[in-house]
Amino acid sequence: MSEQFSRAAYWTANLKLMALCLSIWFVVSYLFGIILVDQLNAISIGGYELGFWFAQQGSMYVFVVLIFFYAARMNKLDKKFDVHED
Amino acid sequence: MELKTLTFLVVGATFALYIAIAFLSRASTTAQFYVAGKGIHPVLNGMATAADWMSAASFISMAGLIAFLGYDASVYLMGWTGGYVLLALLLAPYLRKFGKFTVPEFIGDRFYSKAARLVAVICLITASVTYVIGQMKGVGVAFGRFLEVPFEIGVLVGMAIVFIYAVMGGMKGITYTQIAQYCVLIFAYTVPAIFIALNLTGNPIPQLGLGSSMADGSGVHLLDKLDQIVTDLGFAAYTAQKGTTLNIFLLTLSLMIGTAGLPHVIVRFFTVPKVSDARISAGWALVFIAILYTTAPAVGAMARLNLMNTIQHGDVGAADGNLVYEERPSWFKNWETTGLLKFEDKNGDGRIQYYNDKNEAFATKAASFGWKGNEMVKVDRDIMVLANPEIANLPNWVIALVAAGGLAAALSTAAGLLLAISSAVSHDLIKGMFAPDISEKKELLASRIAMAGAIVVAGYLGMNPPGFAAQVVALAFGLAASSIFPALMMGIFNKKMNREGAIVGMLTGLLSTLIYIFWFKGWFFVPGTEMAANTPANWFMGISPESFGAVGALLNFIAATIVSKVTTAPPEHIQHLVEEIRVPRGAAEAVDH
User: Fold this and answer.
1) Which of B211, B286, B587 minimises the CB distance to A48?
2) Helices B572-581 & B103-110, crossing angle to 10 degrees?
3) pTM of the model
4) How confident is the model at residue B592 (pLDDT cuts 50, 70, 90)?
5) What is the pLDDT of residue A1?
6) Nearest Cβ partner for B249 among A21, A34, A74
7) Which of B53, B72, B75, B78 to probe by mutation at the A interface, max A CB count within 10 Å?
8) N or C terminus: which one in chain B shows less Cβ crowding within 10 Å?
9) Would you call B538 an interface residue with chain A, using a CB distance cutoff of 8 Å?
């Protein structure tokens, strides 16, 4: 595998991972927390209506998990395509 | 011990700590001054970023905003946290790989243009100055309320403290102080929240308490109870949506991309040793931020419930359902003296009626009870955090801690902003444009002078706030979202984006957003010069000026793409630079800038 080719493949893999993460980012905040909030509020978890929970709690928890997930997967990609540091 | 003495002691102890840190972390090179020598551990950088990010507004005002807006305040919760996902995925690792000192420097190098760098500097300074005025004001207000020190003296003390650690230590001093400030502010925020949650729901974790049943044995969920109490008094239901979906959507998006585009936040990720550290550090930053941001909805809802229950302790409309003014609790009296709470006995019955008299249907019903209008003529939203410890009957040391926490939040954000401003002046303007041959020693001196100057200007504006100071959300986030964020993103993700496209794009985003804001808020915020009243009926498609940043960003992307297609592609070495920043390897060399 030439270096040029490997770098292009690394970038494509990165973009795919990004697209996955940003879709989840969009779904939990904009879709669940805003657009579908009324429909989801018909469902309750504990004393929370689900849409309200996503808007004021859930989306933030998912954001945190997303960044750590992305960082861990990128570390693997860095090694796989031999572009990691040190 | 008397509360005031105790508060002086606690605040004094935290200040002594900040100054001690300043002496231990002096900067001796420009790399240390601008980016702390790129040697900050990612977890510690996350903590410093959290303190840098969470301002006096996050600490003092946000829970109150949530208390009165209910669901609609979700825009701030999601908007000010979701931006970190964009930062971690789209910007931080690549800008860290680029390995220089400032955000305008990246824009100038990537678009091989001093003009582009200058536009970025102008956006940076406008956004940061607007932001820092509020922090300086916050310092003065916190001193005034808790220590009964005159406002100006409070601002001066704040300026002196920042001066010591920011001028001496630059980014290095600021970073280590911010870590200490984070610990102070998060402790001060969560302790009262835990007690209140325990008190109301029996669950000590506020995030769970908000979704629990009341501890009064009724078995009713806290949020259902709150919805019922507020609607019984004619207010909109707490968990219901009040604004339009489009505006809520766009405001959230504007705040997210604005957060990701604010230079004082981005530059924090220049301080970690590696590209992979920049990614993980954004995750840690969000962990530390989310501790406060997920607690805030509980604080807001519970404080609102406590306030409503205190005033309307019996059935609505019952003769003895309302609090007798003479029997009001001591915290009520304390906050009346500050002017944050104000009561006016409109129907002269000696009891307090707190209801929504703007709701016509309910106002008619209220009249039949003999109520003659809402008697809580002022309920400042800041009171929700400030009075919390007293409402929950917490010991005096907790109240003293809240004062220290508010000051820590304001000072840490102010220092981060001042660094962004002073490095833009000394590195982008002096070294980048007027005196490129300046020696490192002289540049370091220039950066210290710029820092001192920025502190004086910020302090002066904090004492004499101009009209634009109250427009932080519209102006700072609007500019960052519409001009800086798109320019950075296209610089990384579009190899063919050229100088012409970037400049036209930034100006399009900047001007369209500014004009939209000025249209409804007055030209340069001069009262009376607005072209149309700032009401939803006048807004274009119901989009508020605060929400326009996302539209400005879209216009930026479109304009830049069109212009770059019809002009010459960027030179070979620039396209090569873009390829280089996309891979982590090689970032180590960049440390020796």
Assistant:
1) B211
2) 140
3) 0.94
4) very low
5) 53
6) A34
7) B78
8) N
9) no
